[in-house]
Amino acid sequence: MLSSITRNWWLVALRGTLAVIFGAAAFVWPGLTFEVLVLLFGAYAFIDGVIVLSFGLMAAGEGQRWWPLVLGGVVGIATGVLTFVQPAAMALALVYVIGAWAVVTGILEIVAAVCVRSSPANG
Known about the structure:
By secondary structure, this protein is mostly helical. The chain has five helices and no strands.
């Protein structure tokens, strides 16, 4: 899996760039309507989910542990889709959704990191 991520370094850079853009927009334009920030979060969660899901599929193709990444990707995609389908409802629940998404994603990334660390490719 590490070799797949190394070959596709630009996906990691894209993910980081999107995170920086999302964070900067929240600081630079505090006067934006809450709905725009909700939709921005939805786009970020969806794109991040697609990227993480692709990492999981690459890991599965290499016989590595894939389920934490696939599950994290599905959670991100579902969060993004839900945000676009019900933006008003998501605006009310955004704090809880962001908190839950961050906790679940963080746990899955920790699991993925432990899997990568214990991978035979790392010696």
